[in-house]
Amino acid sequence: MIVTNDKRYTIGVLVQNVPGVLARIVGLFSGRGYNIETVTAAETNEEGFTRITLVTTGDERVLAQIVKQLNKLVNVIKVFDFSETEFIDREMALIKVRAEEQTRAEVLRIVDIFRAKVVDVSPHFYTLEVTGNEGKLSAIIELLDQIGIAEMARTGKAALARSKK
Amino acid sequence: MKLKGAQIFFECLKKEGVEVVFGFPGGAVLDIYHEMAEHDIRHILVRHEQGAAHMADGYARASGRVGVCLVTSGPGATNTVTGIATAYMDSVPMVIFTGQVPTPLIGDDAFQEVDIVGITRPCTKHSYLVRDVNDLARVIKEAFYLARTGRPGPVLVDLPKDVIQAEADFKYPKKVDLPGYRPTVEAHAGQIKKACQLIAKAKSPVIFAGGGIITSESSEELTRFARLIQAPVTCSLLGLGGYPATAEGGKRPDPLWLGMPGMHGTYQANMALSHADAILAVGARFDDRVTGKISTFAPKAWIIHVDIDPTSISKNVEVDVPIVGDCKNALQQFIEVFEKEPIPRLTEIRAPWLGQISEWANDHPLTYTPSQEMIKPQYVIEKIHELAGERAIITTEVGQHQMWTAQFYKFDRPRTLLTSGGLGTMGYGFPAAIGAQVAFPDRLVIDVAGDGSIQMNIQELCTAVCNKIPVKVVIINNTYLGLPRQWQELFYEKNYMGSCMEGSPDFVKLAEAYGAVGLRAERPEQVEEVLRKGFSIDAPVFMDFMVAAEENVYPIVPPGKSITDMLLT
Ligand SMILES: Cc1ncc(C[n+]2csc(CCOP(=O)(O)OP(=O)(O)O)c2C)c(N)n1
Ligand SMILES: [Mg+2]
């Protein structure tokens, strides 16, 4: 068995929104052999800036290198290393689940419990929208899987540091 | 007043003080070439774009200024990639201008279109595709700024044809605005203090200096500091010349000089690193060719590491005191501390360590078996050193001849050795020598080449001849790709598959065919005469030295071994 000290880390990256910036970041990861589990990117409230959230795995040394390498990119304004701070993270999933007569009630019960939403209905399927942290999403996916998930799209994580109390 | 993009291009170069561009034209950059004659800038027309990139590199390494090259789109751009990667690995300030198809055609697989920004993303410090002529001046300003500041490196600027044809108002920005780029120059005083405490306590310290010493122009500070604390110094391949190898005008070795460490390092340098109780690394990055087996590297040492690039620190070896900052700044702070508070009883404390080191040096000095019959390559290097004079600039290709140069040429001054360390690019030395000679027309510039490597960019002999660039090429002709052959001899049962270079051209005739001078030495007694003659000619000269074919570079640390496991003969 290979023993690793690999852990999952969430990293926030504030970048200038210039062409190719995402390629630089993703290329850094692939070129240097770092993992990316999820990546999300979208504009922030400030014009010209994009906020990227990455989830990666590695040991502490790898994480330290990733943070430094990201900082080295000219278009990167700031890197948030969430291994050192408390943070909130959320992910959204759209899940198309089988909803036949016998399972519909069960699906709705799950929707209720997880505070999800039904966003599309067809004769055989419900499409649900669910938001939460990783734990919540895995839990609902596991339950729905038993009923029958036809298709699913997840956004990947977005994260922000908690503000100091 | 509105200027065309091509005019703006030259106005910007003027503002940056660019005196020379190494280039090769093509459809995408003809507007720039059309404009060129109107401007006071020297253009060196190369014979292959790889040559242009290495020339800009050699120019930059020799002078400390930013090297510039200009090539067309597509194949012109891709031909520069090896040169860009070479410069990137060795932190050389360069700006590469590539032509690009007009913006409306980008993405359509247009004729001679290639995504050069994408191709070079991992081997440039930064890169730009200029989409609007109004951005051109700002981008060029930023490109030069990025190339030369912080940890220097190559920056690529891709210029679509319609952008250099379009017009805009020209205003060169006074300042750059790069919110994500703020290299730390000033070393943190607290970290310096921690480091000083370790240094003050150390009984057996070693200073390990890398290319950062050269880049930051801090060899004087390094020398002063090493003498101040009586610490022996070893320099990586790229750091050679950062600390003087000799003292008293070359009469004897500098007492604190250890030579180069690592795979082909000196016995005393590798032993000193392995027995040191403190290592102060400045502007070095602990390349695997230096450290050998990483888990056994410098087992007893506290490691202090100064580098302007935080990613270099604790990347390969675990560092005890990281110091992010410019080498010069850090060394100045160190000097200040120890000048104020000298280490008490320094001579006495250091005596056992320096004694041990001279013992190592005496036990296993760099040697070779001289011969009356065959020319020994090491002998040629020693003779070059003897005859070239202290202002000479040496470039090398890659291979055994490069390692012998690093071992047997005694570099006393910074920027006198230009060699591809990180990427190990055969074909680098000759064009780099041309670039260096362009920067310093009055100095002797010598490419120490192998018979294999010289053939990788030999076409640039035409560039040298046509532009009257009197570089000297010393070919250490062992009729082999010597370095792979040595590995095959030692580690692959002497299976010399692929490493025999028999059938190479007659380099003397070839030089003559190009309009250069060709000389040859076949016996040891001819070596000095050929060198003297070659060095005295004011034109490009190829000197072909037929050397002992199967000579090996020693010491050698076999791959994967600790640096104390040196094969000495
Ligand atoms: C472009 C490139 N291709 C391959 C290599 C691998 N390589 C390293 S040294 C060497 C042989 C160089 O031969 P030569 O120039 O004759 O030098 P020698 O070792 O014989 O002194 C080779 C093939 C390299 N470093 N660069
Ligand atoms: Mg050879």
Short characterization:
With 165 residues, chain A is α+β, with helices and mostly antiparallel strands. Chain A has helices spanning 21-31, 60-72, 104-113, 134-147; strands spanning 7-16, 38-43, 49-58, 76-81, 87-98, 117-121, 125-132, 149-154, 158-161. Chain B folds into three domains: 2-169, Rossmann fold (3-Layer(aba) Sandwich); 189-363, TPP-binding domain (Rossmann fold); 377-546, Thiamin diphosphate (ThDP)-binding fold, Pyr/PP domains (Rossmann fold), CATH 3.40.50.970.
Question: Which tags fit this structure?
Answer:
heterodimer, A: alpha+beta, Alpha-Beta Plaits, 2 domains, 5-stranded antiparallel sheet, 4-stranded antiparallel sheet, 9 strands, 41% strand, B: 569 residues, alpha/beta, Rossmann fold, 6-stranded parallel sheet, 22 strands, binds thiamine diphosphate, binds magnesium ion
Structure commentary:
The complex is a heterodimer of chains A (165) and B (569). Chain A is of the alpha+beta class and 165 residues long. Chain A has 2 domains: 7-84, Alpha-Beta Plaits (2-Layer Sandwich), CATH 3.30.70; 90-161, Alpha-Beta Plaits (2-Layer Sandwich). Helices cover 29% and strands 41% of the residues of chain A. Chain A contains 4 helices and 9 strands. In chain A, a hairpin with a 5-residue loop joins strand 2 (38-43) and strand 3 (49-58). The N and C termini of chain A lie far apart (44 Å). The model of chain A has no long low-confidence stretch (mean pLDDT 94). In chain B, strand 2 (20-23), helix 2 (30-36) and strand 3 form a beta-alpha-beta unit. In chain B, helix 1 (5-15) packs across helix 2 (30-36), helix 3 runs parallel beside helix 5 and helix 12 packs across helix 15. In chain B, the strands form 5 sheets. Chain B has a 6-stranded parallel β-sheet, with helices on both faces. Chain B has a 6-stranded parallel β-sheet with strand order 13-10-9-14-15-16, with helices on both faces. A 6-stranded parallel β-sheet of chain B has the order 18-17-19-20-22-21, sandwiched between helices. Chain B is α/β, with parallel strands linked by helices and 569 residues long. In chain B, 56% of the residues are buried. Chain B has 3 domains: 2-169, Thiamin diphosphate (ThDP)-binding fold, Pyr/PP domains (Rossmann fold, 3-Layer(aba) Sandwich); 189-363, Rossmann fold; 377-546, 3-Layer(aba) Sandwich (Rossmann fold). The A-B interface holds A 15-16, 19-20, 23-24, 27, 31, 61, 64-65, 68-69, 71-77 and B 117-118, 121-122, 125-126, 129, 131, 146, 178-181, 309-311, 314-315. Bound molecules: thiamine diphosphate and magnesium ion. Thiamine diphosphate binds next to helix 17 and helix 20 of chain B.
